[in-house]
Design goal:
16 strands, 196 residues, four-stranded antiparallel β-sheet
Amino acid sequence: PGPQPNGLHAADDGLWYIDQVDLKVYKLDYQTGEILFEAQTDTEHSSGITFGNGSLWVASTFELKSAELDPATGSMSLLHRTTDVEHPFLMTLSPDRRFLYTNHSPGGFGKGGDQVASYELVGRTGELKLLNRQSVVGTAACYTEIDSSARSVLVAHYDSGQIVSLPVLKDGALGEVVSVMTHEGRSVNADRQECA
């Protein structure tokens, strides 16, 4: 596959990822690594991918896009662009596929002021309805995940080494950060990482 994989989505039928250089979406077989599907996207600086409700969601530096995907032909048809998010990175769908959560970085990645946004999926249109945004403390939010009970969203930070949790409210919106765990230590490559 492509030279710089970025953004993964584990599905029942394979591992989806988007490549940041060739801007293609791939689905790989878990056992063999064989490419089961690939399609070219029109994204720029792709960084996140998730699949649900019949749509493929792709985060890039400037927007979130949803596309209808035809695995048989490899064709993708743009459904909707969501442009009110700055520097979205990774995203996750709620287990019931009704809500999407993505971290984003107003002002740029690693500049501080990072947030996580909650969106409601509007049917199968690919449209996202913004519910709210919450500050996620720390710098360089780089990973967002919802727990299997759909009660908490977790966000990990690259620079500050923190993991924060936010409660998911009944309407799918997010409450304020309720816990912060800061990791300390160094990586095997001390030049690239100051926190664990």
